[in-house]
Write a structure and sequence with these properties.
The complex is a heterohexamer, with 3 copies of chain A and 3 copies of chain B. By secondary structure, chain A is an all-alpha fold. Chain A has 15 helices and 2 strands. Chain B has 2 helices and 7 strands; from the N terminus they run βαββββαββ. In chain B, the strands form 2 sheets. Chain B has a 4-stranded antiparallel beta sheet with strand order 2-5-1-6, covered by helices on one side. In chain B, strands 3-4 form a two-stranded antiparallel sheet. The model of chain B has no long low-confidence stretch (mean pLDDT 95). Classes of the chains: A mainly alpha, B alpha+beta. The complex binds adenosine-5'-diphosphate (3 copies).
Chain lengths: 446, 112, 446, 446, 112, 112
């Protein structure tokens, strides 16, 4: 398994070479936005307020996955598979943590020699100590904060493969995906890589998190095949209250995600929190009204899905838009993601089971592109002076990342297919993964 | 002795229980069941997709009564459980060969 | 719906006129406690520590509603109505958020021309930007922090109408109530209005939150009528564990609520946290002992209800009392609210289903009045020099707010009655709101 | 009950006398690590950032117990006892809070006249006011922060006696245990007592929390006797998802526990957070792999138990080890605690029902001892210069605390036996404690 | 009239329901049950200890049919529920003495 | 063949199962039910108000046995389930007309 993934790395490195040469022109990021001086260079004094906020934000983002996302997803499946979903999220979180300190952090954030991949100086957190600083707070906290993003991103993909994928395949997929997709893209956008150089805007992960996860989820779902009974004989979510609990945790945690991405407790963080909240509220109401109108009844699963769509959509834009932009993005999130769900299921006929692409992928991409519009002063935004130019950068960034996600995910899925195998047997699917894969039963109410 | 097996709408349980008590039936056993019949299930819609829910929640009441109480008991159930809307349910009567009360080992009529 | 509410606003404005003229005498708040300089006036430098705490406190208070309060209430109803309760809390949160930025914030906190209502300069958050400050932290965070209060207050009222009120009526009620009750009262007490001018003490909302919600809940419950089976054939709480989870979230979130209301991470916040906790613990134990003595068994729902009573009671007083005062308030909360529950049900015969008035209303009012006693130095408190005078101010404030809440709620309920209608049909009530109003089923354990 | 416990205190004081005389030599702690100057002495200015972090950390640790630990334990028992477990945790939290302000805080942290027990100057929080400082943040927050530790520690013991112990006995046991075990040991290790003087390392409670609770739990479980059906006819955990939710809350809360114990938002807190997380992740994966290998299936309850083991183990060491040490400790936690569970049940044949000793006790003790190894520079640690000497201090400290815990717990259990009685009747055990002891039913899904 | 009581594997419920519909049986009542038989339960292992789970989740389908439908109905159930693996379940047939539809008070054959 | 339908206290399930195994009955189906009888329900008190819980949790055990095993089986159940306290439950015996094992299509005696 490890051997195979190393081999793949080599293969991909070779593939990238030509492109790398082209990108060579772009000068190194002079001052990385996520200012990561090693301890030696650190000159900024520690700010205890910013440090306090970053500690808290890190806790919040971890809380989003454990148990937030796990519950959000767990409530949507059948009762015989709920534990498996929680297990997926939990195991992925642990695996991502270990890989992050081993290799991903350095790949994503150490100064690289090209715009394509970070350096390897911090492999195994080499060179990091108590005094290492990331701007005016400790680098250890930056490492942790970013780790929580590396945890939730593959966690999002879980929604695509629930109720049918082998646990061993999930672990292998996650490991390879983090190395081949997440770490490089993070470097490109946040770590000082070529998209960062190009001036792409993505405060908290419309590209890095939602686009990568959304696209990969869609492709994985397609390659994995649908659940038994798709699309007409599926079972209703077994526990909508669990979905709502998870969604609420996502909402509160998302303030750590977005406002934490400002890396300081300041006016930017405040505005980010505000617009994040507005988008979530507007998207929720929008989705609710659509359901009310179209289905006759406003549902709980619906309103909270709208909320997630609103949050995913504002994520990349939350450092640049004002309240008005947030209202617009929230509204668009509600409408577009609502219809995207139906399109994926009914037109594409892909069993992206918990709508990872339609909600996160579509939302994240939409926000990434529209920040070029709503980030302009006209809409009360900041930081976007030339809308057209920014638009082209954003589109290019999305395009490149989507393309790379597709290629890499395809390769990874093929690897899994021929090593661990992808799907459980039909019998296991019938019995449920909880019992068959994990030897446990979810509810024993006697 | 007969076993009366009534499948009724869940919110009628209390009414049926009271009606049975009135005709002297003071022992019964209740099971939460799912029913399928003329009353069609419903669809629930999540994120734009329809999910068919074929089965509806029903409550099954089982009570064993003396032969001469059967008629009244059935009538009482029917009266209490009726809403006149589809899905009100059924009452079935089955023969019982013997009964025993575990605590006292009394049998048959005494066991009820 | 919107037209109607505008009409109502006009009507009420007219009604208020005479009173307003009387109140005219009172000079404008010189320095509003919640010091809201617009960016232009801001001179205080940003304090990152206070900012960090206010970001966190905001997250905590949102967490109180989503999912805290929702679960606290959801576990108390029948299993066929649990989703509807979660939906109420969630939709109310979204609606309150949107109204807050649209109009409520400016009504509550912008400088007004009389003591009765804030100005309209910040309508739609006009004039707020990244640099706007509220004291030494960004105004955006102040807006968010206060928004979470506007979210939870109508959320509390949910407990009065569960299992029978129409969803459309709930939304209309909430919108009107926020405009007519919450925003004005907030201005009176916190925003620099006439009660603020009078020197009323209410750190975190004994009046603004608990008294308004409690009284309105009682009246609404009365006008709505009881649930089928009230008072003798009601069903037991379907999920006490859910109640406890929600209550625990309320407890931890309440530190954001109370200590956050100090608007700084300092000694005041510390003492507020301490007395808040003490009151909760003492009230819990008091309630538990009462149950043990009276019913023979100490129950989980009971102990956590005691906790909520203790927290509601200390809320207005938590900036002024010391540990001893907290012990006293906690004890009184446990005893008085315990018996209040029985009185509402058995004497008043009102189906205030989840005891909003008996727990929040009674607790909040009691704390508001008793802060005049326990805030004196005799009881180790601070800030109350003249007990008698303070007592009269507190009583006046409670009286005025209760009166206004009753009048406004009555009008609002009548409006709902004649537009959306108030109650679901008997058949819907029998089937349960989850299925009938929201098209979902809570537990599908197969 | 109170009389009895006072008597016991006297008895124990007498017993301690000889030892106290020996310990007399050790000079008073010159500057207590947890620097608690009374207001009069306070010279350090308040740091709002550290204050913000300590407020947050306090919230996080309370969240660990309510509802974290309660759910973690509640999901592991039968459905007829789940409410009783939640009730135990909740009532213990309230009781510990009240005792803490009454007497425990001063016993644990006020300057004592010997190395054995703190002074009584802060009894009932006498002398504490808004201006009292603990280093550069308010002492009120320090009191609250430490209170949350006094809440969770007896909470951990709940796992030993679930499904069979009388509620009255639980309350009495908890009160006595806090007075006789927790407060003294806290003083010894953190409050400036003899172990503190000796230079023992225990950042966040390997000794104070996990060793005391673990050992006492084991002894209590032994004296209480096993549940009906132990060891072969026990019932499976009724709700593994609840276990996972609780465990996740423990994880996020543990950052408050460990990083909060640095009492500042600085580089130490950052590194503590990082190593805490690493240990949890590694231990989780280790436990999962062991289960996979040994049982054929990796389970959810297993992986989260591994997580708790990893966290308990790193706790004392988290201020001294680096990432490498954290990986090692996490791995050892996974392996050792995994097998310890089996040993307690199958070899010792003690029904320590939820493995308090095997997970918390063993983990905490292991971490306490191994910090002497992994805290050395060789393993990238800090603060341990002389491994052998530190090892001997650590072992001595563990030995003394274990011994004292055993003696005191034995006495306390005997007291309970002859006053409240220890166990419920067989009939109550059959019916379940929820119904019989608390008059409630956990799940009423109709 | 007979009561057919079939205990089948839970995931076969839909197939059985469809099979019954094909032979004209359109009313049935379903109960989630736990079964014990030749198919042995399993052990779940938590923290190194084994817990025996003796009972397996099964689904009980009860349907009352006319005498002349019994055979087809039983055959349909057997066909639909069979996997050939142990634990497929049983079908029992019991006599019914009378039936009544609550909504209309129709009896016997008409009640079904 | 007979269907034995026993309603017992939930915690007696294991004992009854073992007792039945001893007399050679190795197949049974269990349903969680709620019972109403001489043993009165209880009240739960929340926030000072009483809620009557009429129904008590019971466990229903159904097992089909050969005619000549019925007596022993019933006796075994009664012995195992008895506590002597009110609410111990009942055993009812019903006639069965036919049985079939789905997996093998064996019928009647062989099907059990
Ligand atoms: N033939 C049958 N055998 C067993 N149960 C039946 C049968 N027909 C109906 N039922 C039960 O009765 C319930 C109500 O029946 P349905 O046909 O929907 O309405 P109605 O009784 O008003 O005609 C069903 O949900 C099912 O549980
Ligand atoms: N004698 C019986 N009486 C009632 N139910 C039975 C009986 N024997 C088996 N069952 C039910 O049928 C299910 C399947 O039976 P089992 O013996 O495990 O497999 P098979 O039917 O393939 O021989 C059991 O789980 C139980 O619910
Ligand atoms: N006539 C009956 N028909 C069906 N079930 C009954 C009947 N009488 C009692 N039961 C069931 O038996 C259980 C125990 O009966 P109960 O009268 O409470 O005690 P006992 O069996 O000791 O006299 C009841 O809870 C109910 O489930």
């Amino acid at each position: 398994m490890i051997k195979k993934s190393l081999y793949l790395c080599a293969f991909l490195a070779a593939t990238c070479l030509p492109e790398m040469l082209i990108a060579q022109d772009s000068t190194q990021a002079e001052v990385a936005a996520v200012a990561l001086e090693t301890a030696a260079e650190a000159t900024t004094a520690l700010d205890s307020g910013n440090t306090a906020w970053m500690l808290t934000a890190t806790v919040l983002v971890l809380f989003m996955t454990l148990p937030g996302l796990a519950l959000f997803y767990g409530g949507l499946v059948r009762s015989r598979n709920v534990l498996s979903v929680l297990m997926h999220c939990f195991a992925i979180a642990c695996l991502a943590s270990v890989l992050w300190i081993a290799i991903l952090y350095t790949m994503a954030f150490a100064t690289g020699t090209s715009g394509w991949l970070g350096g390897f100086e911090h492999i195994g957190l080499k060179g990091i100590n108590i005094d290492s600083m990331a701007g005016d707070f400790p680098e250890t906290i930056f490492i942790m904060f970013q780790m929580t993003f590396a945890i939730i991103t593959p966690g999002l993909i879980v929604g695509a493969f629930v109720e049918r994928m082998k646990f061993s395949a999930i672990l292998l997929f996650t490991a390879l995906w983090l190395v081949l997709v997440y770490a490089p893209v993070t470097y490109w956008v946040w770590g000082g890589g070529w998209l960062f150089e190009n001036g792409v805007i993505d405060l908290a992960g419309g590209i890095v998190v939602h686009a990568t996860a959304g696209i990969s989820a869609l492709l994985l779902a397609k390659m994995l095949g649908p659940r038994d009974g798709f699309p007409n004989k599926l079972h209703v979510p077994h526990h909508p209250a669990m979905v709502m609990i998870g969604a609420s945790m996502l909402w509160v945690g998302w303030f750590g995600f977005n406002a934490g991405s400002q890396l300081a407790a300041n006016g930017n963080a405040g505005m980010t929190m505000l617009v994040t909240h507005i988008s979530a509220a507007v998207a929720s109401l929008t989705w609710m009204c659509l359901e009310w109108r179209i289905n006759g009844k406003p549902g709980l699963v619906g309103i909270v899905t709208g909320m997630v769509a609103g949050l995913a959509t504002i994520t990349p834009a939350s450092g640049n838009v004002g309240p008005l932009g947030a209202v617009c993005l929230g509204f668009l999130a509600g409408v577009v993601c609502y219809f995207a769900c139906g399109i994926v299921k009914n037109k594409l006929k892909i069993d992206d089971s918990l709508d990872v692409f339609a909600v996160h992928g579509v939302g994240g991409i939409m926000g990434t592109i529209l920040v070029a519009v709503f980030g302009t002063a006209v809409f009360g935004g900041t930081g976007v002076d030339d809308m057209v130019q920014q638009l082209s950068i954003q589109v290019k960034a999305v395009g490149a990342v989507v393309l790379w996600s597709i290629i890499a995910t395809f390769v990874i899925v093929m690897i899994c297919k021929f090593t661990t195998g992808l799907r459980v047997t039909e019998e296991v699917e019938n019995t449920g993964l909880d019992q068959s894969e994990h030897g446990e039963t979810a509810y024993q109410f006697e | 002795m007969k076993l009366i097996k009534a499948i009724v709408k869940p919110f009628k349980l209390d009414d049926v229980k009271d009606a049975l008590a009135e005709v002297g039936v003071a022992g019964l056993t209740v099971t939460e069941v799912k029913g399928f019949g003329r009353q069609k299930g419903h669809t629930e819609i999540y994120r734009g997709s329809e999910y068919t829910v074929d089965f509806l929640p029903k409550t099954m009441i089982e009570t064993v009564v003396d032969d001469d109480t059967v008629e009244q008991a059935v009538a009482a159930i029917v009266k209490a459980a009726k809403t006149g809307k589809i899905g009100d349910g059924k009452v079935f009567v089955l023969p019982i060969e013997s009964a025993i009360r575990i605590r006292t080992e009394e049998t048959d009529g005494e066991a009820l």
